[in-house]
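To fix ideas at the outset, we first show an illustrative case, written as a sequence plus integers encoding its fold:
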Amino acid sequence: MVRKLQIFSDGTLSELEDNTLLKLTDTKGQVHLLVEALQFTQAETFTVTPDDAVPRGVPEPRASVKRINAEGLRLVQSFEGLYLEAYLDPVNVWTIGWGATEGVHKGMKITKAQAEEMLKKELSKFEAAVADAVKVEINDNQYSALVCLSYNVGANALFKSTLLKLLNEGKYQEAADQFLVWDKAGGQALLGLSRRRRAERSLFLSEPWEWAKAWEPTRVLRLAVPGQPLIQGDDVIKLQQALVKAGFSLKVDGYFGNDTDVAVKQFQQKKGLTVDGDAGTKTLQALGL
């Protein structure tokens, strides 16, 4: 089935799937409504109709859209944080309340009650987007986790994601693991996003998620580049002890030096792992750590 969006001269938008009318949006000539419609469409083709064309038909009746559940709402509020004065987010978008961006400008101030209304209004768009995009059966936690994700990264990002593709193929676990991919802003991984993605993944899997608020990335143990101090610490001691136990002759001193680098590479080669000297997750697991 092919989605297409027809744009009429009066600003009306008609979204169809094959020949079935799904949505009819009257933008009343307002650019922000046109932009919003484009952000929330799954249309694959866009057509500007002739000046004399008019929208035809009535949208197909659709089931009422579910609402995000209490855990999902708590997750959004926890990670967005409540700000009653507008601020610039990490990608320089003016934001207020619990992550609201529509109509927000520098110097804008609101009350908590206004923030709650703005959040409810904003979430309703993403609730509808998730309901429209997902073609397989999902439970309330899975639905709410997807609403949380799309509220943060955008509906279009969800529509085009590998996560949605895998989910609609019925690959629920693989889809869950895709949450962790969406932890970057401006090309850089951000700790706050890494924590949020882990929380959303846990909610999707109907597991406790609050632990993710304090999650810290595991340090990758490796030989320092020339001119930089050697990595040291208790985790290096545990690595060295595990390598000695595995049969390597090595001084356990807590410093990741040349001898430790050589031992790690030899161990990786022995176990058929990527030989890079980085004591990452797979290497540590192979060592029983």
Summary: Residues 3-37 form one domain. Strands lie at 3-7, 12-17, 20-26, 45-48, 83-88, 94-97, 184-185, 188-189. The first strand starts at residue 3 and ends at 7.
